[in-house]
């Protein structure tokens, strides 16, 4: 891959934001951390691991004798639940609030570390009473409520392996994942609240298990959240509340080998069969706790942290269920959506709880941008001191809006790059150290070794776009694909020997900052020129009319592929924009000016929404179906399945071009 085959990243103008002297002085991470990690990488990771409690201390940090199968701290024993709960209570912090729960209808609970520990111990004893043993798999299909975190912690506490399945997945998706993991127990709820109404969950579980389709499942534990009527199978279904009320809160956490399986998390596979990403315990918790504390500059005794991710995604695992609790943080969890009952809901929560660290997705930020700054300005957001971004690259305009409107013009933004497979953050600024550059993920964290390579495995220099790789094993790395070691090797380690290929394109700018260029499979080939969808999207969003954009490549007889764009206009620009045809011409000309004629979209469609998963990722494959006039594929993972009907209907009625 040569440098001239990519469109260069936009918006690298000289906008830099150095940390204030006061922030740097009080920051958790100090500049020496980079030197320490570089001088002795394995010693650095051993030091991070020793911040945790080990039931049996480890003597070897890394065993990499059988790549790509790493073993971290493998002769040590640890219990993740003890580290997240018991040790804080024993240290005298039992009265500290662990969870500020905000339900969508407006109900709320404050749960201290002592109360959460008590609840997890009771749940652990319930699981043991149901015959769940270390190594058994437990499927969790729940709304974003405290019981979901209790369930995860209880499963991990007894050495079982959880498979959390996002509550928006269909019965068939649920069945596939339960069957692949051979789960013996399902933990679910009657339903949860979403967009102002009770949304059922238990019926999907019943359908997934109907007729003995998952014979490994012996019981279903059901949390009664909404009180709606659900089916009940006597002898199989058990009421969560009743079971915990009668269970003992006496449970001593035992240590498990550091490489003991912790969880399976399924991601979509290109073959259509979901990949069960396997993570183990000691290395995962080490890196998750380290990154949570240093990347977000967490001061556990004063900060209130809020990550808006659902537990069904890796961000909800690492930076809700485990990282914050391992660090003794007080955190907010919210059940519902940002627009219910109105678009001020998130900001009212920030104001109510004094949230000081907010971690969310660029998609959410751009949705708020579309509505303008007036709504957040109605709330007191002065408590915020650190902002985070996760899920996809954040374009510079959204970055600046986030900092200025939500962060008061001063809060540093940590733009984080990582994956389900990496388990924890890999690339990010460190607030208090890094001079921030809008739109860039910046640099690899201390302890992480990465390079940008061409197709032949040659190291590329600055300003040369290529393939983002991780060249040394890291503690929270995936340990395999559940039940399929060959697929693990082929998917992640076959392109370069003993080097992990992330699937993303990236480049270093002239200052050594990393710019993500999108998935390699999201690169289009137009008349022999490789164009990154992320760059064209960034060009579109740089125009004042556009709040959000998604770009896909569509087959074209002349050019091979053509650029097709779907854009959402900012609400305050709707009157100025004119007709869709006018907007299309203006934006096509703008892309030509920003990038060049080769990137000029063939078609621009003005839409009201884009197809997104509940984690905020745009489902570009569905837009490709529309752009190429194919039947739209499976939409069950979308947060709102009706979006594709609206887009398809508008296309049928005449596209803007």
Can you describe what's shown?
The protein has 657 residues and is an alpha/beta fold. It folds into two domains: 3-505, ANL, N-terminal domain (Rossmann fold), CATH 3.40.50.12780; 527-652, GMP Synthetase, Chain A, domain 3 (2-Layer Sandwich). The protein is built from 21 helices and 30 strands. It is globular, with a radius of gyration of 24 Å.
Tell me the layout of helices and strands.
Layout: H1 21-26, H2 32-39, H3 41-49, E1 62-63, E2 71-72, E3 77-78, H4 80-93, E4 97-102, E5 108-112, H5 113-129, E6 137-141, H6 146-157, E7 161-164, H7 171-181, E8 185-189, E9 191-194, E10 197-200, H8 202-209, E11 219-223, E12 237-239, H9 240-245, E13 256-257, E14 261-267, E15 275-280, H10 282-295, E16 304-307, H11 314-326, E17 330-334, H12 345-353, E18 357-360, H13 362-371, H14 374-377, E19 386-389, H15 396-406, E20 413-415, E21 450-453, E22 466-470, E23 480-481, H16 485-492, E24 500-508, E25 514-519, E26 523-526, E27 529-532, H17 533-541, E28 546-556, E29 560-569, H18 574-577, H19 580-594, E30 603-606, H20 620-627, H21 642-652
Parallel strand pairs: 4-17, 6-7, 6-8, 8-11, 11-12, 16-17, 16-18, 18-19, 19-20, 29-30
Antiparallel strand pairs: 1-2, 3-13, 4-5, 9-10, 14-15, 15-23, 21-22, 22-24, 24-25, 26-27, 28-29
Helix pairs in contact: 2-3, 4-5, 4-6, 4-11, 5-6, 7-8, 10-11, 13-15
